[in-house]
Amino acid sequence: MAASGDFAVVLRRLRESRSLTQEELAERAGLTAKAIGALERGERRRPYPHTVRSLADGLALGDDDRAALVAAVPGRDTTPRVGPTPPAALTLSSPASPSATQGTASPGSLPAPNGSRYAPAGPMTPCIGRDGELAELLAVISSGTRRLVTITGPGGVGKTRLAMEVLHLAAPDFPGGAQGVDLSAVREPTLVVPRIAAALGLPDAVGIEPLDALVPHLIGLRVLLVLDNLEQLTKAAPVLAGLVARCPDLVVVATSRAPLRVRAEHEFVLGPLTTPAADDVDAVASSPAVALLLDRAAAAGSPTVVTDADAPALAAIVRRLDGLPLAVELAAPGLRLLSPWALLTRLEQPGPGASLRDLPERHRTMAAVLEWSMDLLEPEEIALFERLAVLSGGFSLDSIEAVTEEGADVLPALGALVDQSLVLRAPSPDQQPRFRLLEPVRQFAMQRLHASGLATATADRHAAHFHARATASAALLDGPDLVAVLNRLDADHANLRSAYLRLLELDRDGDAAELAGSIWLYLALRGHAREGLAWLERIGPGASDVARCRALTGRLGLQLLAGDTVSMRSDAHVAVALAGRVAEPAVTCELLTLAGQAAVFAGALDDADELLARALVQAEAAGRRWVAVHTRLAQCQLALVANDLATAGLILPTVVRAAREIGNAFTLATALNVHATLTELLGDEPATATLLGEAVALSLAARMSWTLGYALPALASLAQRVGDPVSAAWLFGAGASISAADAVDPTFPVSRALSDRGLDATRAALGELRFTHAWDAGRAASDTEIQARAAVVTTRAGRGRSA
Asked: Which of 69, 164, 301, 669 is the residue whose CA sits 20 to 30 A from 156?
C-alpha cells in the first residue's frame, strides 16, 4: 500500500510533467485550486474516487499513469482485520473537514441548525462490498444532468446505508449543504416537503404552500438532499420532481422499494451483495457478503476467520440469505453461540416462517432469519417483540412497559431482544435509555402482532399512553423544565402522531383534541406548527366543550406564532363564546389570553382590554401563574400599541421578575423581548442591548425559533442605531431565515414598525450590494455565529454610540 505522502508526490509530478499550474489543473478537473494545493501538500491524504477520476481526466492520463495515481491513494483503514476485506480498485475514505462544505453567499440561503453547516457525520460502520455502486452513484450525482436519483431495491438490501455513504462522501462537493432526511415515520405525502424543511432547520411555514416556502431557500445553492424511506410516500413524487425542476442546483437522492415513476427520475437498482461463486477459501474470502457477515460477527464479539473447513458453510449461509445485508447482519450474532455449520442448520430448518411464503422471495429469506430469531427467544420475549411493533421511531423504557401486560418486568426480555439485534439502542435526549426497531423488523413484528389477535388492544394501550404523556407534558411546558420536556417530545413525536391518529380512528375526538392542544407550545417552538394546525382542524363534533377549549387554545397559539391575525380574530370570537360555557378557569384562562392577544394584534384595543382582564382574574383564581404572567405581557403589548409607555414601564419590570421566578425559558425570553420593545421606544440603547442579548442566548440554548425570530430584528435595528449597519443587515438576514418569511412573532405591530424602520435605514446606509452581501451571510449563519454577532452588537450598544 502506498505511503500517505505518495499521492501528493505522484500528483505533483504528473501535473508538472504536463506544465500545468494548480489553477489550470483545477479548471480542467472541475475542482478548486485550493483543493489541488491541499492534495499536493498532503493535507488531504485520501481523495474520493470521483476526485481521483476528475484529476486523471484533467491530466489526460494514459492507462499506466492513471493506474499509478489510483495506486498512490492510501487505504481507508490499515488496521489488520479478522476476516477478509473485499478487493477494490480504490478504497473510499472520509471527506474533508466540515469547513470544506462552506459556500459563498448566493441568492438562496439556508440556516445552519445546531451550529453546523450540514457537514454530515461519518457513518459508524464500514460500507462493505459497495465500492462499485458508490463510485457509480457519485459519478451520477456529480454529472449535473441527473438530479433526481432513486435507489431502489428490496427491503433490507442496504439502500439507506449506501445513501448515507453517498451523503458523507459527496458533502464536500455541495457548498450549499448536504442533508439526510429520514421519512420512515411519515405516512402523509403532504408532509414530505415540511419534513425536508424541518431537517434543513427552516421553521414551519404557515399560510403558504410548503413547496413555495421551501424553494426560495434552495435557489442558487448547490445542495444535496438524501430522502430515506420514500416507498410509502410515492404520491409525493410529482412534488419532488417540481422541487428539482424549480431549483436548478439541487440534487435529490431518494431510497425507495419502488421507483417514483416521474420523468426526471434516474433509477439506480441496488441488488444484494455478491455471494461466493465457489466454496474454496479464496472465493469465500473475497465475497462481499461473507465479508459483511464476518465483520458484524466480530462486532458482536465473535471473530471468525475463513478456513477450509468452514468456507463451504459460510458460503451457504450468505447464499441462503441471498446476500441481503440486513439478513446477514441479523444472522451474524448467531456465530457467537454457533459454529458456521450449526448456524446454517438453524437457517435451513422449517419453522413458523412457512406462514409468510406469500411474500417476495427475498422477503422470505428475511422472514426466515427473523423467524429463526424467534426460535431463540422465550415466549415472554416473543410477546414483547410483537408488542413493540406499535411504537414508531425511538421509544423509552416506560413506553415499552405501557404497551405490555400491566406489571410485567420487561427488562430481561428487552435485554434478550437487544442481544439478538432485534432491538437497537437509539439516541436519547436525556440520560434515559431509548431503543428502536429497524423498519423491516418492525413490519415483521406487526405481522406477528396482527396474527396474535392483540394488535387492536396493543394499539389502544399505545394511544392511551401517549395521550397521557401529552397531557402530563402540558403542565411541564409551563415550568422550569421546558427545554427537557421539549427534547423528550421531540424524541416521541412519531409516537404522538400515531397516538393522535389512533384516537381519531376510535372516534375519540375529545382525547385527540386534548392531546394536540396539550402540546401546542412544543409544536410551535420546535417547528411543527403546520402539522399542529392540521391536527387541530380535524377535531370532529364529538369533542366536549372542554376538549374544544384545549383545541382552540392550541390553534390560537399556533396562529399567533404564524402571525395569522385574520384566522386568530375569527377563532377568537368562537373561543370567547365557548369560554363562557365552560366553568373551568384553569382551562379557559389561557384561551382568553390568546383571544385577547388576537384583539391586540387586530387593533381592537377595547375588546383586548376586556378579554385580558377576564383572563387574568381566571388565571389567578386557578393558580396558573404561567398564564397570569403571559396575560400581563399581553397587557403590556396592549399598552405599547396604545402608546401608553408609562403603563408598560410600570408593569414590565415586575413581569420580568416573575418570569425569572418561574424559570421557564420561553416565558422569560418573551418578557425580555417585550421589555426591549419598550426600552427601544424610550431610546435606552444599553438597556435594550442587555435585554436582547439575554433573549438571544436563551432562545438559542433552548432552540426556540419563535422568540429568536422576535429578538433578532430588534437587535438588528439596535445595531443600525449604534452605527454598525453591516451587523444590522447580517442580523436582519439571520432573523429572516429563522422566521421563515415573517411567520413568527415580529408581526406584533409595534415591533414590526420598529424593525421595518431599522431595515430601511440599514439598506440606505449600505447600498443594495453591500446590504445583500451582509444579509446573505446572516441567512447562512450557524447558531454559534449568531451568538457571536449578537455579543458584538450588545457590547457595542452597551458602551454607547461612540464605541
From this structure: 301
Q: Cβ distance 637 to 600 under 8 Å?
A: yes
Q: Say if residues 181 and 196 touch (Cβ distance below 8 Å).
A: yes
pLDDT in tens, 432-458: 899 988 776 888 899 999 999 999 999
CATH annotation of 101-269:
3.40.50.300
Architecture of domain 6-71: Orthogonal Bundle (1.10)
Query: Do residues 406 and 460 touch, judged by C-beta distance below 8 A?
Result: no
Q: How confident is the prediction for the chain on average, in pLDDT? A: 84
Q: Are 773 and 105 in contact (CB under 8 A)?
A: yes
From the candidate CATH numbers 1.10.10.60, 3.30.70.1350, 2.40.10.10, 1.10.10.10, the one assigned to the domain spanning 379-453: 1.10.10.10
Write down the pLDDT at residue 85.
30
Paired strand residues for 227:
181, 254
Long-range contacts of 426-430 (CB under 8 A, 24+ apart): 426/394, 426/395, 427/394, 428/394, 428/396, 428/491, 429/484, 429/487, 429/488, 429/490, 429/491, 430/484, 430/487, 430/488
Q: 60 burial class (0-12, 13-18, 19+ CB within 10 angstroms)?
A: exposed
SS3 content of the chain, % helix, strand, coil (to 5): 65, 5, 30
Are the C-beta atoms of residues 743 and 780 closer than 8 Å to each other? no
Q: How confident is the model at residue 350 (pLDDT cuts 50, 70, 90)?
A: very low
Cα(649)–Cα(679) distance, integer angstroms: 9
Euclidean distance between CA atoms 524 and 202, whole angstroms: 13
Its pTM surpasses 0.85: no
* CA gap 758, 460 in Å, rounded: 54
Phi and psi angles of residue 267, each rounded to the nearest 5 degrees, phi first: -85, 130
